[in-house]
Amino acid sequence: MTDQTQAPPVAGHNQPPRLRHPEKAHRSDQAQPKKPEWIRVKAPTSEGYKKTRDILRENRLSTVCEEAGCPNVGECWSQGHATMMIMGEICTRGCSFCNVITGRPDELDVFEPGRVAHAVQKLGLNHVVITSVDRDDLDDGGADHFAQTIRAIRHRSPDSTIEVLTPDFLKCKPGALETVVEARPDVFNHNLETVPGLYPTVRPGARYFHSLRLLQRVKELDPTMFTKSGIMVGLGEDRQGVLQVMDDMRAADIDFMTIGQYLQPTPKHHRVDRFVTPEEFAGYEKSAFGKGFLMVSATPLTRSSYHAGDDFAQLRAARLEKLGRA
């Protein structure tokens, strides 16, 4: 999920040709709705924010917080929390909602897993979220790089819990998903992003039921692993479509659902259809819990990794409570 900010390139990285999604076919020239007060956030200025930024810069690490322009970056970095984005800053997909650069990626940096682990240790993270760009250029979609990063963090910070937010591995050779699951992250997250009817314009390189099956397969490989997925609202979906996605997720045995407001990063990206009210988000949260999710986060500013550590603690507690009732 995105907003209007854009990160500077990391010093020392090669810079091949890049595109910020020129001319989307589904772009609307209509002005987007005015951003309401409940979606506004203050610019980051705290010392904690600067410390987190400096540690990330020292280790030459990218974050989805910057690359996707997350509105919560000031709050999260002030607390030393950052979602690290591995395998470069250039994505092989061109989703209409996303502000990450599309183009030809760099070669994988074999030293990156170690630098991520060092940053996790230096930041003192109890819970870390690792995500990536899509790497359809790689045979395994970067699955082994995810696994190496997980193992490096386990070595440096054995008490840290690890959440991965992966691509869909749609164009990979068999075994990619298994490689990540075998590395034993504590949470396996893959976002559905939107309702299936909007995939042709919002997420054209992906397939809704493939993404669902990916998450279902994680549970088949390791029933103890928490699974998580999220969607954005305000793209043009209706309430019934969101409720159907909830049912599909539960059919795939997904434990944790996130729902947040889509924010248009540039005029060339998919237009905001509307700003969903906090009351509607509360209604979605109530419905999702009623459908059996162990954990739900549904607010205008919810993002996949927003308050991920606190949410993970609640997720574990909810499972223990459920097992106690069984």
UniProtKB/TrEMBL annotation:
<dbReference type="GO" id="GO:0016992">
    <property type="term" value="F:lipoate synthase activity"/>
</dbReference>
<dbReference type="InterPro" id="IPR003698">
    <property type="entry name" value="Lipoyl_synth"/>
</dbReference>
<keyword id="KW-0004">4Fe-4S</keyword>
<feature type="compositionally biased region" description="Basic and acidic residues">
    <location>
        <begin position="20"/>
        <end position="39"/>
    </location>
</feature>
<feature type="binding site">
    <location>
        <position position="76"/>
    </location>
    <ligand>
        <name>[4Fe-4S] cluster 1</name>
    </ligand>
</feature>
<keyword id="KW-0479">Metal-binding</keyword>
<keyword id="KW-0949">S-adenosyl-L-methionine</keyword>
<dbReference type="GO" id="GO:0005737">
    <property type="term" value="C:cytoplasm"/>
</dbReference>
<feature type="binding site">
    <location>
        <position position="91"/>
    </location>
    <ligand>
        <name>[4Fe-4S] cluster 2</name>
    </ligand>
</feature>
<dbReference type="Pfam" id="PF04055">
    <property type="entry name" value="Radical_SAM"/>
</dbReference>
<dbReference type="InterPro" id="IPR013785">
    <property type="entry name" value="Aldolase_TIM"/>
</dbReference>
<keyword id="KW-0408">Iron</keyword>
<feature type="binding site">
    <location>
        <position position="98"/>
    </location>
    <ligand>
        <name>[4Fe-4S] cluster 2</name>
    </ligand>
</feature>
<feature type="region of interest" description="Disordered">
    <location>
        <begin position="1"/>
        <end position="39"/>
    </location>
</feature>
<dbReference type="GO" id="GO:0009249">
    <property type="term" value="P:protein lipoylation"/>
</dbReference>
<dbReference type="GO" id="GO:0051539">
    <property type="term" value="F:4 iron, 4 sulfur cluster binding"/>
</dbReference>
<feature type="binding site">
    <location>
        <position position="305"/>
    </location>
    <ligand>
        <name>[4Fe-4S] cluster 1</name>
    </ligand>
</feature>
<keyword id="KW-0808">Transferase</keyword>
<feature type="binding site">
    <location>
        <position position="70"/>
    </location>
    <ligand>
        <name>[4Fe-4S] cluster 1</name>
    </ligand>
</feature>
<protein>
    <recommendedName>
        <fullName>Lipoyl synthase</fullName>
        <ecNumber>2.8.1.8</ecNumber>
    </recommendedName>
</protein>
<feature type="domain" description="Radical SAM core">
    <location>
        <begin position="77"/>
        <end position="294"/>
    </location>
</feature>
<feature type="binding site">
    <location>
        <position position="65"/>
    </location>
    <ligand>
        <name>[4Fe-4S] cluster 1</name>
    </ligand>
</feature>
<dbReference type="Pfam" id="PF16881">
    <property type="entry name" value="LIAS_N"/>
</dbReference>
<keyword id="KW-0411">Iron-sulfur</keyword>
<dbReference type="InterPro" id="IPR031691">
    <property type="entry name" value="LIAS_N"/>
</dbReference>
<feature type="binding site">
    <location>
        <position position="95"/>
    </location>
    <ligand>
        <name>[4Fe-4S] cluster 2</name>
    </ligand>
</feature>
<comment type="pathway">
    <text>Protein modification; protein lipoylation via endogenous pathway; protein N(6)-(lipoyl)lysine from octanoyl-[acyl-carrier-protein]: step 2/2.</text>
</comment>
<dbReference type="InterPro" id="IPR058240">
    <property type="entry name" value="rSAM_sf"/>
</dbReference>
<dbReference type="InterPro" id="IPR006638">
    <property type="entry name" value="Elp3/MiaA/NifB-like_rSAM"/>
</dbReference>
<dbReference type="InterPro" id="IPR007197">
    <property type="entry name" value="rSAM"/>
</dbReference>
<dbReference type="GO" id="GO:0046872">
    <property type="term" value="F:metal ion binding"/>
</dbReference>
<keyword id="KW-0963">Cytoplasm</keyword>
<comment type="similarity">
    <text>Belongs to the radical SAM superfamily. Lipoyl synthase family.</text>
</comment>
